[in-house]
Amino acid sequence: MSLSNKASVIIVTYNHRKYMRDCLNSVLANNPLEVIVVDNGSTDGTVELIEREFPQVKLIKSPKNLGYGGGNNLGVMYAKGEYVVILNPDTRVEKNWLEELLKPLENEEKLITTPKILTYDGLKINTCGNIEHFTGLTFTRGLNETPEKFSKFEYLSGLSGACFAMKREDYLKLGGFDERFFSYMEDAEFSWRAHAKGFKILYVPNSVVYHDYILKVPSEKIYHLEKGRYIILRKYLTWKELLIMLPSLLMTEVLTWGYSILNGVRGVKFKIKGLKEGITTKIEKVACDRKKLLKSLDWKIPEDQLTYTPSDKIIKKIANFVYWINYRVILR
């Protein structure tokens, strides 16, 4: 039996009808054990399309919108496969995508794999796994590079929530996605938790996904990103680590406040809202080797993402210098 026949592919959707036909056809061509679609209350005909054209798909109709993390947790509960594969609905996949993504999981324990994700037209890279920064920032890795780049297997700081695979048993042991993250940052928190629990994240370049993605951070997204960032820092680090990291945390505040101000009154409003909720949301501290956790994260941020002027790039170069010095002190 091929590895694909041992996999449950989970797709959470909310009004993604225009993508579902191509997405499901490409996934089914990979011969998984099952495809589970969790619908979060779509009103655009997504459910009707799946019921009419894809009777072989297991469709779960959630009575309420559970968000991306909650929807995936529900899907995994119903999964029968030895492996679970999380996949965005606004994607299509190559023929050998699933088998290649699963191969490394067969012989290595405590492993998560994430593929090469290209833009929907295949002309550029969307992400080759994510960059999880030790101050809680998160970035796509390889954004807008040519598809030929990032051709080697690598262990990374972060998985991409758009697609990753792992053993179902491991997903359940880790506790699945934290459902307090309704949208955005759920994959960042999951990456931090994976490292905290001794897992590795492996980038698999010969497993390819096409994703309809454009990098945008509107004011509302600032709220979700910042709320999530503060929750992650509080959840995984103690006051001791946060104090040692203070120069880097202040530098990140300069960057996030600066970007919020560029978004005007709404940007500032949502930054404040994210800050307030991020530091007041109830959390449960995760016990782990915190120095080892920080060592598994990245210290450098991309200097070309969300950069619009030469001064933006200079500020990010200064930030990376501060991060580099501080990170060395942290890991001493």
From TrEMBL:
- Does Amino-acid biosynthesis appear among the keywords? no
Q: Which family does it belong to?
A: Belongs to the glycosyltransferase 2 family.
Q: Per its UniProt record, what InterPro entries does this chain match?
A: Glyco_trans_2-like, Nucleotide-diphossugar_trans
Keyword Transmembrane included in the entry's annotation: no
The highest taxon in the source lineage is Archaea
Q: Give one Pfam family, short name only.
A: Glycos_transf_2
Could you tell me one molecular function GO term of this UniProt entry?
glycosyltransferase activity
Residues covered by the Glycosyltransferase 2-like domain: 8-171
Question: What's this protein's name?
Answer: Putative glycosyltransferase
Q: What keywords tag this UniProt record?
A: Glycosyltransferase, Transferase
